[in-house]
Amino acid sequence: MFSHRIRTIAFSSSGAALVLLGILGTGCQREEIAAYDAPKDQPASPSPHGAHGSGDMSQSAMSAPPRPGIRWSSLPEGWTSTGASGMRAATFSIVSAAGAKADLAVIPLPGTGGSDLDLVNLWRSQLALPPITEAELASHTDTTTVSGQPVKLFSIVGTESSDATAAANQILVAALRRDGSTWFFKLGGPAEMVASQRESLKAFLGSVEFTPPEAATESVASAAPSSGSPSGPKATWEIPEGWKPVAAPQMVHSKWSAPADAAGSADVTVSVFPGEAGGLLPNLNRWRSQVGLGPAPDAELNPMVGNLEISGGQGTLVDFQGQSPESGNAIRLVGAVVKKDGNSWYYKILGPPAAVEAHRAAFVKLIQTARYSRGS
Questions:
Q1: Which of 151, 197, 181 has its CA nearest to residue 27?
Q2: Which of 56, 120, 218, 263 could bond 354 through an S-S bridge, CB–CB 3.0 to 4.6 Å?
Q3: Surface-to-core class of residue 230, CB atoms within 10 Å of its CB (0-12 exposed, 13-18 middle, 19+ buried)
Q4: Integer CA distances (angstroms), 326 to 291, 329, 330, in order
């Protein structure tokens, strides 16, 4: 039996920060950010302080186009919509006739969110499962449709997990890449319950419709306000000469383009998340994946923690170089993580190695001279 209604959801244009979301746990309503990947450049917009600048300059997040909404006309038996919360566009509580419970989260994020293998191994790690290889991926992959578009449906079963609780759970995730964003539909809960909902999930996904922002009727605030929000955390930086402000996409706090003549240009992004944002070391490994590197063991990453002197404390600075997973060209990423007032600030400069090198010192100075406030 289905409950019949139409519900439309949209998003405010003030995003929180960037990218791949690992939703911790199965059936849990808490999200933790597990990776970062800004979408492709958007056209630069004029800065209220001029095209070039140095000295004190408080940078607000640029406006980005509102994301589309979603709507559905019916829900499978036992499904109840519990609305949007945090990073979720929608949440559904699912209860079987026997009382077993599962949870479906719908989360849109800018960018492509990494490769299929990266995503599956991220979710496997949530169930304390070892990573699989590309050759093994097909055995964990099904197909379905979302709003008429074919997508892959990934299955992660915790049977072989070393964690007793995780061993009893299962995750089903559909990932739809659409208009520069990735929509994640993640169903988690007890393995038997999730398996019983596979066909219901497919039916629901097939019924989902995307609506333009102006057609949406229910607005949902972002999880972490940008610097433009009265209540959001703020930062003041000394912007290096020559850095050009770029319209910050959804969920990115601030963004600049750093040109380096014949070396090309590098992209600089700043994002802020509440709390631990999924854990430092997992995020460092996600940065490694953006330059085509595999995950590094904790023993290799731990010495980097707290290696950057900043005003009033210490941050973490990393420098990774490899090949772009998309183009195969050489690429370099220098990133930093600073924790202030209960927030995690993520700084990243990404681009051709020579361009990143040309701006590395200025990038580090930007971080070291930042001044933070909680907002109001």
A1: 197
A2: 263
A3: exposed
A4: 9, 8, 11
Taking alpha carbons only, the member of 286, 284, 294 closest to residue 315 is 284
Q: How far apart are CA 56 and CA 169, in angstroms?
A: 51
Spell out, as residue ranges, where the chain has pLDDT lower than 70. 1-69, 85-86, 110-114, 161, 180, 211-232, 250-251, 375-376
**Measured between alpha carbons, how far is 253 from 69 in angstroms, rounded to an integer?**
22
Token pair for 27 = 């059936």
Q: Structural domain of residue 133, as residue ranges?
A: 3-32+66-215
Among 215, 235, 266, where does a domain finish? 215
| Verdict on whether the full-model pTM lies above 0.90 | no
Q: What is the pLDDT of residue 212?
A: 61
Of 154, 188, 215, the residue that ends a domain is 215
**Quick one: pLDDT at residue 349?**
96
CA torsion through residues 244, 248, 253, 257, sign: negative
Instruction: Find, among 235, 229, 228, 242, the residue nearest to 50 by Cα.
Output: 242
Average pLDDT value over all residues in the chain: 75
DSSP assignment string, 38-100: --S-------TT-SS--SEEEPPPPP-PPPPEEEEEEE-TTEEEEEEETTEEEEEEEE-TT--
Phi-psi region for residue 232, left (φ > 0), alpha (ψ -120 to 50) or beta? beta
Quote the number of domains for the chain: 2
CA 199/CA 142 separation, integer angstroms: 11
CA 208 → CA 140, 146, 204, 222, 328, distances in Å?
24, 6, 7, 21, 35
φ/ψ region of 230 (left if φ > 0, alpha if ψ in -120 to 50, else beta) reads alpha
The pLDDT of residue 17: 30
Residue 293 in tokens: 């590197």
